[in-house]
Design a protein that fits this description.
- The protein has one domain: Protein-Tyrosine Phosphatase, Chain A, CATH 3.90.190.10.
- It has nine helices and nine strands.
- The protein has helices at 22-27, 81-87, 126-132, 135-146, 163-174, 179-187, 204-212, 216-224, 228-238; strands at residues 9-12, 15-18, 34-35, 52-55, 74-77, 100-103, 111-112, 115-116, 153-156.
- A five-stranded mixed β-sheet has the order 3-4-9-5-6, with helices on one face. Strands 1-2 form a two-stranded antiparallel ribbon. The protein has a two-stranded antiparallel ribbon with strand order 7-8.
- Helix 4 packs across helix 9 (228-238).
Length: 240
């Protein structure tokens, strides 16, 4: 999460504080955008194109942007309340024509007016705690994805790389995409943010947690709280 920001590290007592550069974040609106479709899945099936997208925030979006042509039904914001307050919600034009907007504020307790405070974690486990510290929020996210008639759907955080990257990795794992492709999608954010590159190893603790529950089915049920019928609904909608 902290790697989403161009920041200066300070201290307040014993606790590190990250000063969030909202001016920088405003300038990356609509970037890091891509369709999650096209990946080959188990059994030779393929993730449908034109159904699920990922992006940076949508408070500011360039005039010429493919998002403006998308017939979205659902838009899911994973930013904290403070980020939305400072950057703004998705532009009104993206919520016209009955587009459903869901705000799931993952990381909310970490964002405060005087800085960004994340729990201490082992190096390399930063993306794991984005998952494990907000299980109810992720449950809400995947339950939305399991609803019928929510696609085409776009989900995003501020930079579209950390919280959004975790969500995309779990979703692609659920769809049976092999991990090399999942990692490739995760690392594609480095094109937009070359100054703070993601590494393949940052997903390893998440994959290890999934494997410790016997695979994605057990993980989604035992950790996230998603039923097998919900997983099947997502697969039916997103796999060719």
């Amino acid at each position: 999460m902290s790697s989403e920001k161009d920041f200066k590290l300070r201290t307040k007592g014993e606790k590190p504080r990250v000063v969030v550069d909202f001016d920088l974040l405003r300038r990356i609106g609509g970037r890091n955008f891509r369709d999650l479709g096209g990946h080959v899945a188990t059994g030779g099936r393929r993730v449908r194109t034109g159904q699920v997208y990922r992006s940076a925030h949508l408070a500011e979006v360039p005039d010429r942007h493919p998002l403006r042509e998308l017939p979205l039904r659902t838009l899911v914001t994973l930013q904290s309340r403070l980020e939305v307050r400072h950057l703004g919600p998705p532009r009104a034009e993206f919520l016209e024509s009955g587009v459903r907007w869901e705000h799931i504020p993952i990381g909310d307790p970490w964002f405060r007016e005087d800085g960004f405070y994340k729990i201490d974690t082992r190096p390399g486990h930063e993306h794991l705690v984005i998952l494990t510290e907000f299980l109810e929020d992720w449950q809400a996210f995947f339950r939305i994805l399991a609803e019928r008639d929510v696609y085409p759907l776009l989900f995003h955080c501020s930079a579209g790389r950390d919280r959004t990257g975790v969500g995309a990795a779990i979703l692609l794992e659920m769809l049976g995409v092999d991990r090399d492709q999942i990692v490739a999608d995760f690392l594609a954010s480095n094109t937009t943010f070359p100054q703070m590159p993601l590494q393949r190893a940052q997903l390893d603790p998440i994959f290890e947690l999934v494997d410790s529950h016997g695979g994605i089915g057990g993980f989604m049920h035992e950790v996230i709280g998603i039923e097998p019928i919900d997983i099947e609904s997502i697969r039916e909608d997103l796999l060719e």
